[in-house]
Structure formats: C-alpha cells, structure tokens
C-alpha cells in the first residue's frame, strides 16, 4: 500500500491503494491505483481493456503465475503436444467413420444386438489389455517417461489404423476391432502415467494440480477444434477411399513427428538409469557434471532402439547393472564369489556380484535412499572397469573412495533429488525418498555382520 498524502490534518482523510500483478515478487507490474478521500473515490487502471480480457482468457489455459511457475521446457512441449493432439482428433473422425461403417451402421441388414455385441467385445478387450499392461509395465513408466510417451502415441496410431482397416476385412472384423482396442488400452495407461510424471516435472511452485487442470483445458480446446476439422475432412473425403488414406497417413506422419519434437524438448531433472550413466561417464572423463539439458540430448528416447540393441547383442553400461537383484537367484558359485569380494563392501548396505558381464546389486533391508544411489553408481563403475571378463572390485572400491563424494555433490547441483527404486530395478531420483523402497518388496536382502 502506498499513501502519499497532502500535508496537515487533511492527510488523515486520504487513502491510496495500489494493485500489482505478476508471477513472482521480482516480476510484478502495476495494474490499478485507487485513491479515496472523505468525499470521493478515484481509480486508474493500467493496460488496455482488451489486454485485461485476453489475460483472463489466457488464465483458463495456462497455470497461475505463468511463465515463472513452470519449467522452461513447458511451452515447447505443450505446443507440440497440442499439435499432435489436434492431428489425433482429426484422424479419429476418419477412423471412427470407417469403424461404424464396418459394423453395419446405415445398413438395413445390420441388427442392433449384433452391433452392440461387437462393441462390447471391443471394449472388453481394451479393459483387459489395460490391466495386463499395467501389471507388466506399470512400475517402469515414470522412470522412462520419454520413451513410454512415444510408445503410447505409436500404439494409438496403430489402433486407429486397425479401425480404418476394418471395412476391408469384414470376415475378420471382430479380431481387428479387438486389436485396435487393445492398442488404445496401452495408450491410455502409458499416456496417463507419463503425464503424471511430466506434470510433477513442470511444477516449479508446487502447482501440479493447477498444471493438470490447465492441461485439461488445452486438450479440450484441441479436441473441439480437431473434431470440427475432422468432420469437415470426413465430409470432403466421403466416398473417396484414396483421399481418406492419403489424409490419414499424412496426419499420422505429422503426429509422429510432433510427438518426437515434444519429447525431445523435455529436459527432465530426475535421474533414471541411463541419465545417471551419462552423468557418471562425463564426470570420469572431465571431472564435471552435465546440465539436464545436455544430458537430455544424449538420451535414447526412441522406443525401438533398445530392442534393436538386444538383437545385435549390444548393451549400454546401465543395461549391464541390475539394481535390486533377488537373493533367491544366487547359486553356490555366486555365494562363494560374494564371500571372496565381501571385504570391498564393508560398512555399505549393499553387495555387488560381477557375473557373466553384468553386475547384480543386492540391497540390504536397512539401506537408505543414499545407499541405493551409491550402490548403483558403484555398479556402473565396476561395469566400466571390467576387462577381459575379470572382476575389478578393488579398482572400483578405490574410485568410489576417492571420487564418489565429489561426484555426488556436483550432481546434486544439477539434479537435486533423491534416489527412488522401481519394481523393475530401474533407478529414479525424486523428491520423495520416504517411498523409496515401497516397490522393492521382495528384492531386499540381509546378511550377518560377521
């Protein structure tokens, strides 16, 4: 409140109030000034009326305090995400039109009970597929949000393609419909889970709920626009199969490109196994830690890249480290090897087993998130030092003693989070260390102190 009053007793009858607006205390602008006396009230507004109206309308689509309340990669991601969503809803009109025609809508020979049964099987397959996908991959989605985001949209493209193909194969209609629904069920689970992880990433002011709500408004606007354009396109291409396919395939290519650009623009500040490996490798070479944006440029985000590497038997360093290995997998030979190397892990709540070119990490049941982080870095170091099939436990322990503290202090400046473990053995750094071991049940081990 600012109160420049006239001199004397008359000053007691004056009050001035200023209104300021902005995303933070350092980014404020004055929007109005009100001055009151015993007999009058005067007000002055700053900025045009249309500007104020536009600001209020924009507030329905962007988080409160934008842009200061979100990360810098929020705008490019949302831009590309909206464009890919727009292409999806346009194509949905084409694929839905084809599917409805395939089940007999508009034909006198079609029966209501027959169409209802086909639609029921389609939805049932999708529900079961979603449950199975969640069972097998649910705990792995947030640690690899970029890759699974691309997978989700690719599966959505595949589901729409199935719908468009359905009229061409009437004898296999139910099978094609169910396969399309199955693909989209994967999309629903993966897209929802990765969206939750990305929302937490964008939220700089603990405003995840606001960001999620505004993202819903953006998606609703894109849906309405896409549906309108899709209906227009469906009307124009009706009866012209070549035009339908050309439009669908062109929009699909654009959809895949927009999704890739959206994911590529992300600079996540949480660590999964690959990002931790990239940081460690650079630190060993240059004694410095990369920034999140630099790390994101080196990530492998294409969903089929890992499968291709498996075919040609190439593994990246982090893929040779198995975090949270089960003690029940140990053989007699493994137990003897652990007994020989156990001295290298005194005063640590973990053990490492170098076996067949891979490092298996056994976490003690009393380990803290800091212990889990240290064990994974130790496993990466041991993997990188392995030569000619010989274990290098001594060298790895020496490197950890001399360099780990420096590495972790520099790492926390760029990635200031705690280590979180998923059921699949993936590592993820997050702000909530209290739940670090909730999903590691059954993979924790214990051993006597002697």
UniProtKB/TrEMBL annotation:
Keywords, in A-Z order: Membrane, Transmembrane, Transmembrane helix
Domain of life: Eukaryota
The keyword Chaperone is assigned to this record: no
GO cellular component annotations of the record: membrane
Keyword Transmembrane: yes
InterPro entries in the record: RUS_fam, UVB_sens_C, UVB_sens_RUS_dom
Pfam families the UniProt entry points to: UVB_sens_C, UVB_sens_prot
Localization per Swiss-Prot or TrEMBL: Membrane
Domain Root UVB sensitive protein C-terminal: from-to ranges: 289-394
Ranges of residues in domain Protein root UVB sensitive/RUS: 54-284
Family the entry assigns: Belongs to the RUS1 family.
Name of protein: DUF647 domain-containing protein
């Amino acid at each position: 409140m600012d109160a420049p009053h006239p001199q004397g007793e008359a000053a007691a009858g004056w009050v001035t109030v200023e209104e300021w607006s902005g995303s933070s205390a350092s980014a404020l602008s004055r929007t109005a000034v009100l001055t009151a006396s015993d007999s009058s009230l005067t007000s002055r507004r700053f900025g045009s009326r249309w500007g104020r109206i536009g600001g209020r309308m924009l507030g329905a689509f962007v988080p409160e305090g934008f842009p200061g309340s979100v990360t810098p990669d929020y705008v490019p991601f949302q831009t590309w995400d909206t464009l890919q969503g727009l292409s999806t809803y346009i194509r949905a009109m084409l694929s839905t039109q084809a599917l409805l025609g395939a089940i007999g809508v508009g034909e006198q020979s079609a029966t209501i009970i027959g169409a209802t049964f086909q639609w029921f099987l389609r939805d049932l397959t999708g529900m079961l597929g979603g449950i199975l996908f969640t069972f097998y991959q649910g705990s792995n989605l947030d640690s690899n949000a970029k890759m699974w985001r691309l997978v989700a949209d690719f599966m959505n493209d595949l589901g729409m393609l199935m719908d468009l193909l359905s009229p061409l194969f009437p004898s296999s209609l139910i099978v094609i419909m169910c396969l399309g629904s199955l693909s989209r069920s994967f999309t629903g689970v993966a897209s929802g889970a990765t969206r939750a992880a990305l929302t937490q990433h964008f939220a700089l002011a603990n405003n995840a709920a606001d960001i999620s709500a505004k993202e819903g408004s953006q998606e609703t606007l894109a849906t309405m626009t896409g549906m309108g354009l899709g209906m227009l396109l469906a009307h124009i291409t009706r009866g012209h199969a070549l035009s339908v396919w050309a439009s669908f395939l062109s929009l699909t290519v654009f959809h895949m490109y927009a999704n890739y650009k959206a994911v590529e623009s992300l600079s996540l500040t949480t660590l999964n196994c690959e990002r931790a490996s990239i940081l460690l490798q650079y630190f060993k070479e240059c004694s410095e830690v990369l920034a999140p944006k630099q790390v994101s440029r080196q990530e492998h985000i294409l969903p089929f890249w890992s499968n291709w590497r498996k075919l040609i038997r190439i593994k990246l360093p982090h893929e040779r480290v198995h975090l949270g290995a089960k003690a029940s997998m140990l053989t007699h030979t493994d137990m003897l090897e652990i007994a020989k190397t156990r001295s290298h892990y005194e005063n640590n709540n973990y053990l490492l087993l170098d076996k067949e070119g891979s490092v298996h990490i056994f976490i003690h049941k009393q380990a803290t998130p800091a212990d889990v982080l240290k064990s994974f870095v130790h496993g990466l170091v041991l993997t990188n030092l392995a030569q000619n099939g010989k274990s290098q436990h001594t060298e790895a322990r020496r490197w950890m003693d001399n360099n780990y503290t420096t590495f972790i202090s520099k790492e926390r400046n760029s990635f200031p989070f705690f280590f979180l473990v998923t059921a699949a053995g993936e590592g993820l750094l997050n702000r909530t260390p209290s739940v670090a071991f909730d999903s590691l049940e059954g993979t924790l081990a214990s051993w006597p102190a002697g």
